[in-house]
Fold Tryptophan--tRNA ligase.
Amino acid sequence: MKSKKIIFSGIKPSGAIHLGNYFGAIRQWIELQKEYQGIFCIVDYHAITVDYNPKEMQARILGVAADYIAAGIDPKKSIIFVQSQVPEHTELAWILNTIIPIGELQRMTQYKEKAQKQQSVNAGLLNYPVLMASDILLYKAIGVPVGDDQVQHVELTRTIARIFNRKFGFVFPEPKVILSRGSRIMSLADPNKKMSKDLGEKHYIALSDSPAIIKEKIAKAVTDVGPQPTGGKKSPGVTNLFELLELMGDSKNVEKFEREYKQGKLHYQELKEILADDLIKYLTEFRKKREELLKDSKKVKKILEEGAKEAQKIAKETLKEVKEKMGLI
Ligand code: TYM
């Protein structure tokens, strides 16, 4: 295991995992775990930077773990664990907080967006990308497979690594962002915004949604407003539906609908019906596995405990190196 290069990524347990998380992140993890040592985290300390219900947290964590495994992350190959079970993450985050200028954090797009929506902004929201840098750097990951919205945070991680190495001596390689083809899936109800759990139910399709719900959500997806333009550029909603079809590999229907679109003859209802059917088929196996896993939550918890032990071995080594360089031990 040690000889393989490490890639690291994570998802917040703040709701159901949706198609954006899947096509932007998880689907590439499944491929990458063949070649790299994958470390895939459930980042609960990131999830608590906004309001949440403590009573739901444990179920959400288990839900995300089941999502990872059911989607194809293999616990025999990859490490799956919960961030708060490896306290080295917050320890290194504190250290990194002392070397990053506040201005670098204040200019983060996600911080600005989230802060705008809140009456009072907690310090955790500002420091969020420092904890994320700590997640990545603790494992000296060389690659971080994420969606488009996390690119800025990975770039900041590179900056933090550089500042640390310059100040105290080389410890951290600078991780590269790894983007997939589906790195920015848009909301169904408001296709000018990215698909997100925060926007509400009608905006996303969860991997665990039932066939009936998938059909309903796709049927209501926004396409064009007004008459269909002939030959022109597709609206964001239509582009998004085409992209989903393409991501599932339905090139036959993509070609057919492209042709019809150019001729101004595309029936959105047909496109939606085929897309919904494709999605339902695509997710059937996943849904079955997920249900089985959730019936056996002991097994999932065991995977998480073992994952945390494995992760901690690496994390402890890096933290020791960091503290030595800093004169703390
Ligand atoms: P989170 O939980 O918001 O999202 C998890 C992953 O899903 C991707 N994603 C999308 N990709 C394509 N289209 C979308 N509409 C879409 N929405 C979300 C995200 O880019 C992400 O890859 N800060 C991170 C979690 C994190 C992390 C880390 C990631 C914490 N520490 C270390 C990588 C490495 C986040 O909030 O992701």
Notes: The two ends are 28 Å apart (CA to CA). The CA atoms of residues 104 and 156 lie 8 Å apart. The chain has 13 helices and five strands. The first strand starts at residue 6 and ends at 11.
